[in-house]
Amino acid sequence: MKTFNVGVIGTGSISSMHLQSYMKHPEVNLVAVCDLNEERARQAADKYGATKVFTDYNELLADPEIDAVSICTWNNTHAEISIAALHAGKHVLVEKPLCRTVEEALRVQEAVKTSGKLLQVGFVRRYDPNAQMLRQFADQGEFGELYFAKASAIRRLGNPGGWFSDIERSGGGPLIDIGVHVIDLCWYMMGRPKPVSVSANTYKKLGNRSNVRNLSFYKAADYDAEKNTVEDMANALIRFENGASLMIDVSFTLHAKENDTSIKLYGDKGGFEVDPEVVVVSEKHDTIVNIYPQTDNKGFDFNSAFQSEVDHFIDSIKNGTTPISPVEDGVEIMKILCGIYESAEKGAEVKL
Ligand SMILES: NC(=O)c1ccc[n+]([C@@H]2O[C@H](COP(=O)([O-])OP(=O)(O)OC[C@H]3O[C@@H](n4cnc5c(N)ncnc54)[C@H](O)[C@@H]3O)[C@@H](O)[C@H]2O)c1
C-alpha cells in the first residue's frame, strides 16, 4: 500500500476538517503543517501528529518528501500558493473559493496544465453522501430536465470578522464565502450548464453588528471586528445557455427571524431539496408524493463530506483521474461570482 505524504497550509478553523480526514486515511502520512502563526501550526502538528512545522509555505513546498497539500489559508493567497505548489510538483486540494478573481482562476488553470499535477477545488457540498446520491438520481433521469433552482444561505448574525470582512484578503463577503457553496451545488446538480448572464444586487446596510450580544457565531481564527469592507447580503438571478435559471440570496447579517439554508431544484419530471433536509418530490399514480430517502443523515453532514472530499483527492492522485471538482469548475464558479459583483456594481444585467 503506497503512502502519500501530505502537508496542510493554513491551520486555522477549517483546517481541522482536512487534518482529521487525512489522519483517518489509511494511505496518508500527515507530514507537515504551515501557518503564519507558528504557535497555531505547532498546536495542529501536536494534535494531528505532523512532524514538520513551517511558517513559510515555500519551505514546505521545497520539501521533496511531500506529495500533496491542502490549502486552507485566506482567499487572497489561494491562487499564489496553488500555483507555487503545482510548480513545486505537488498535487493540490484548495479550499473554496478557488481564488478572488477570474484572472487569478485562469492563472491557476494554466499552472495545472503546465505542471501536469492534479488540483481539486474544495467544493465540499458536492462530496456529501446525500448530494452524491441525489446527483445519481438526477443522472438517471429521475427529475428530467432541471430548469430552475433556488438557494438561500441566510445568516441573521454571522460576519466572521478578521480576513473574512477585509475585501482585500477575502475578495468579498457572504457571496464568495457561503454563497459559493450553494451556487456550486445547484450548478453541479443541474449538470453544469454554461452560465450566460447574471442580474444581482448587493447591500451594505447593517454593518457587522459586532454590538449584538447573547448570540454566538462562526469567527475567523484572528477575529477582529474593526474592519468591515464587504457586503452584508447579496441576491442574484443567474441564467444558463440551456434556458435554466438559478436564484440565490445570501447574507452575513440580515433582520431575519432565523438562519435559513435551503437548496431546492425543480425539473420537468420531479424536484428535490438538499437543505435543510433531503426530500424528493414526484408524481405517482396521478398523485404528488414527497419521498424522504432513508440515509444516515437527513441533511448535510460536515464530517462525512470532508472525509469523502479527502478520500476522493487521494483516490484521484492514486488513479490519475480528474476529480469531480476540477479547476475548470473553479474557474466557472469564479465567473459567476465575479459577474454577480459586477452586476450589483453596475445596477444592470451582465453577460458572462
Ligand atoms: N469548506 C468549508 O465549508 C469552509 C468553511 C470555512 C472556511 N473555508 C475556507 O477555508 C479557508 C480558511 O478559512 P478559516 O475559516 O480556516 O480561516 P481562519 O482565519 O480560521 O484560518 C486561516 C489560517 O490561514 C493562515 N494563513 C493565512 N495566510 C497564510 C499564508 N500565506 N501562509 C500560511 N498560513 C496562512 C492564518 O494565519 C490562519 O491561521 C478560506 O478560504 C475559507 O473560505 C471553507
Automatic annotation (TrEMBL):
It holds the Pfam family GFO_IDH_MocA. InterPro entries: Gfo/Idh/MocA-like_OxRdtase_C, Gfo/Idh/MocA-like_OxRdtase_N, Gfo/Idh/MocA_Oxidoreductase, NAD(P)-bd_dom_sf. GO terms for molecular function: nucleotide binding. Residues 139-352 form the Gfo/Idh/MocA-like oxidoreductase C-terminal domain. Residues 4-123 form the Gfo/Idh/MocA-like oxidoreductase N-terminal domain. Belongs to the Gfo/Idh/MocA family. This is Oxidoreductase.
